[in-house]
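ok so for the tutorial part 2 we go from a plain amino acid sequence to predicted structure tokens. step 1 is just haveing the sequence, like this:
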Amino acid sequence: MTDGRIALADDHPVAAFFLGAYLYTWLVSAPAIVMGVNWTAAILVYLGSFGPLVSAAAVTWLRGESVREWAAQITTWRVGWRWWAVALGLPLAAAGLITAGIVAVRGPVEFGQAAVSPALFVGVFLFAMVLSGGLNEEPGWRGFAQARLNDEYGAARASVIVGVVWAGWHLPYFVIPVTPHSGFPLVNQIGWFGGILTLSVVLAWVYNNTGSVLLAMVLHAMANTADMIIPLAPDQIIVDGVVDERAVAVVVVVHLAVYTLIALGIVGVYGSATLVRGDAPDGPLLG
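step 2 — the prediction. this is what the tokens look like for a chain of 287 residues:
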């Protein structure tokens, strides 16, 4: 102990945060591994998903820093309309590009199927904002880890470090029956990991330019929701009750390619050191 606080939190705050996020999430969610698909298992998984939020708050407090100041990032919304347009619109534009890419390679797309209702889309988005990547994760990954790693590693490298840890944090979900991750084919699992890394760059870019965890939450939730509008053909993905891994691979590769190009474009234009351009219209809030 150091001055009543844990030395690890004082000396290595990001490592302490990563460790706390893993321990909380994995311990709370672990019983769901043997529970099958039921509400109790789902509740444990979603309670456990708040590991990044809980750990970031705990380490901030243990270091004697202001938890209120850290949490204020969650309500920072005055960031300029351009960044709101990015957070809400970029994942939708990506979904359009992914659709075009799948069509171009003659993948499993069917335009004749019914469109997703606006009410369902908004409902899924709001759910994701709180329980599936937004409030439960972003105050930790971006609002704590990214903010502290920027200066030491540069923003782009820091975002990849966060992305690797973020991906590893999900590992129990691949063996918990109630989660969608447990049903991913191998090619989907590999593509998902790559997608985490590219999305981490995009999220770091938005966070570093705005200082807003709220915007990172919106972007993360929209990225999780926007895939609903990609008109995939279910009868080409599941044939005679069996997943066609080739069809899945086409979707995964195109999806990853689009987000990789977006991430590379951001790094190319804004630079890897900060992901912030000094002449940005709304001005950088974080370096």
